Amino acid sequence: MTKFSEIEKGALERFVTSADAPIYACRAEVPSEVFGAFGSFFSRNPKDLREHLLDAIEGKIKGHETTEGAENLRKLALGEYVNPSHALRSGLSKAQDFFKQWFGKYGHESIANVVWIPFVGTGVSQMFAKQLAYDQLAFFIEQSTRFVKFDVANLYLDPEIMNCNHRDRYVEILNKAAQTYETFTELAAQYYGKELPFERWLSSKIAQEDPIIKTEEKEKQVAYKRELKAKAFDVARLLLPQAVKTNIAWILDARSTEFDIATWKGHPLAEIKESAKMIEEAGREIAPSILKYTAENNYSGQQLRGFEGALDLELEKSPLQKGVDIISHDPEALDKSLALLLMRSNRSADFSRFYQKAKSFSFEEKIHSLKEIITKHRGPRDQKVDVEEAFDCLGITIQIKSDIGAIRDLRRHQKWDRNEGVYTLDNGFYLPEIVGEFGKEAVQAYTQIMEETSDVEHKIREEHPFAVQYIIPMAAMHSLVMRGGLDQAQYFINLRTQPQGHFSYREDAVNFAEALCKVHPWILGYENYPENKNFNEVYENAPMKSILRPTLDETGWHQ
């Protein structure tokens, strides 16, 4: 490893976490393109990335020499650069020529994978958020429907509908949904305030030794009201239409960004098409030499547009009930999972030999082996059963039938393959029991907005089958098909049954746990799933609880 002088170290450590350590990180001052270009050299050049950075600072890169190198080095070492990345740029006098030269020479795709671009979307609709979630490499954080009151006075108005004779119906139903959301936020907050008055709430915090008890009275009141609102939003969010605007921050590699831009340009929704152009423009500010394959991808666009109606079916209305169906699974998952674990822990051999060995064990021996592997060592914070994914080699395909609000959260499990149809109210809507606690008038208002929205949907959708989705509320029942490995299945169930989770997707996660254990009872240590017993009882008496770890308590309060 190259040893650097003190002045070189001082300059380099403006860009990397260490000039000496064999493993280090690049700071934000290293532009994405610079990281991508120098990282790409690894496939052809043994030099450390830090050496390439130093060459750029000193103006020593062939074809990009500069006389400012020594001064760049001195200023960086002394901290005189307001923006250290300027030193790199000045050391690459023909920056874009440099990037184009190396990106073209070393292959575009592998380099584009290591150039990550941070994006922010403000005032985008739920339809945008849904589309972004389908990129499995997009890591994002979105404004929460559970902790933030949404601005329902500022909804996305699709230009396609706003320029047709359905405009008034469209605006009117969105405004009604907004009013109902406001009403239910207040109703729910009042209900929960009566259910858990401040003094009782404070007593529970004292019992939990929550740090809030040491704060001033005003801060306690603020925290209490915040929790009341959060519980209220859990109910009220079911009234939100897809036109409600949100804010999202995400990072995505340049290769996937290219794909999204090219695909989204052919999207049936004007908002997504316009977003593609803005993403392209912003992305090229960060990585102009990388984002080059962004022309509209007609094939991808055809898929998003449903092949222009070639696969359209007219199905009768058929209300969905909450539940999870197992579409496909491997009946030999126990033997194969154990075989994969044996394979990983022994000298390499043909899988079939480990598989035959696992099959030769009795059921008791198989469960004993799993307990030895998992129960003895897996701690409460170990989210994964299997760090090297032997369990994920065995897949399961499920259908989750739930409200769009819950599906919105469950869709974010991006390690799963996911598939779903266009939003509609033809499947009926989810009416949680808690709404009944607000009184008959609340149930009537809730039901009425759903029925009126369904009526408007039918009037609009023949002409605007995709744009009409903006009026569909979060309460509309929907079907999501997902396929993932058994390790991801147990993670999904553990995460989504946490007491602070939303009551709707908690129910979905428990339904999934029950359906999973009925086809794979060995996950709980059973040879056969117990008949005529509810899942809580089945789990409570399970011989093995180290793989599947649902939380079956009542839904809790969240901060």
Key phrases:
single chain; 559 residues; alpha+beta; Alpha-Beta Plaits; four-stranded antiparallel β-sheet; three-stranded antiparallel β-sheet; 48% helix
Explain what the structure shows.
The protein is an alpha+beta fold and 559 residues long. The protein folds into 4 domains: 107 residues, no CATH class; 97 residues, Alpha-Beta Plaits, CATH 3.30.70; 117 residues, no CATH class; 198 residues, Gyrase A, domain 2, CATH 3.30.1360. Helices cover 48% and strands 9% of the residues. It has 24 helices and 7 strands. The strands form 2 sheets. It has a 4-stranded antiparallel sheet with strand order 4-5-7-6.
Helical/strand content category? alpha+beta
The CATH topology of the largest domain turns out to be Gyrase A, domain 2
Mean pLDDT: 89
Shape: globular
Helical fraction equals: 40-55%
CATH class of the largest domain: Alpha Beta
- Give me the side-by-side strand order of the main sheet: 4-5-7-6
Q: End-to-end span in angstroms?
A: 49 Å
Radius of gyration: 28 Å
Biggest sheet record: 4 strands, antiparallel
Q: Name the CATH architecture of the largest domain.
A: 2-Layer Sandwich
Count of discrete structural domains: 4
Fraction of residues in β-strands = 5-15%
Low-confidence region ranges: none
| Total number of beta strands | 7
Question: What's the total helix number?
Answer: 24
